[in-house]
Amino acid sequence: MQLFIMRHGEAAWDAAVDAERSLTPAGTAAVRSMLAAHKDQLKGIRAIVSSPYLRARQTAAQAAEILSVPILVPEAAFVPESPAADALVQLEQLPWQGLLLVAHQPLVGNLITTLVAGDARYAEPMDPGALVMLELDWPAAGLARLVTKLNV
């Protein structure tokens, strides 16, 4: 089964607090372009969940529009400082098969490495807008295989 993990697009630095940072126009355009270009590779996405932070919700909205899939309620377990273990617990409670998770570094890099290698010692580098597709039977440490990595 497939699980997709994406880092939000490029964000501005002009907000009073981190959670309110929005996508830049270039970040929005790059995310839209990458998703549209790889729409066939992403046809396994059935729903999207994101961090509650503005830039992740904006990225999720772009993906939902382009891929014609629903967005689930944002989850606090997917904020930048969340431990990968907490994110895994939350993923287990979601319909994770065909799910696109839109979140932040360092969480996404730590989560991908935990799923693939069993721990987060060497976090997967994820540029803004990068997306990975994982194959796995259950969202648990060391059980996934990284199939594809797409960058903007």
Keywords summarizing the entry:
17% strand; alpha/beta; 5-stranded mixed sheet; 152 residues; Rossmann fold
Give your account of this protein's structure.
- This protein has 152 residues and is α/β, with parallel strands linked by helices.
- The chain has one domain: 3-Layer(aba) Sandwich (Rossmann fold), CATH 3.40.50.1240.
- The protein is built from four helices and five strands; from the N terminus they run βαβααβαββ.
- Strands 2-3-1-4-5 form a five-stranded mixed β-sheet, with helices on both faces.
- α1 runs parallel beside α2 and α3 packs across α4.
- It starts with a strand and ends with a strand.
- The model has no long low-confidence stretch (mean pLDDT 96).
Detail the topology: elements first, then pairings.
Layout lengths: L1 E6 L17 H13 L9 E4 L3 H14 L16 H9 L6 E5 L3 H11 L13 E5 L9 E6 L2
Parallel strand pairs: 1-3, 2-3
Antiparallel strand pairs: 1-4, 4-5
Helix pairs in contact: 1-2, 3-4
Can you summarize this structure?
With about 150 residues, the chain is an alpha/beta fold. Helix content is about 30%, strand content about 15%.
| Alpha-beta classification | alpha/beta
User: How are strands sequenced across the largest beta sheet?
Assistant: 2-3-1-4-5
How would a textbook summarize the main sheet? 5 strands, mixed
What is the CATH third-level topology name?
Rossmann fold
CA-based shape = globular
Question: CATH architecture, please?
Answer: 3-Layer(aba) Sandwich
Q: Helix count, per DSSP?
A: 4
Query: How many angstroms separate the termini?
Result: 24 Å
Poorly predicted runs of 5 or more residues: none
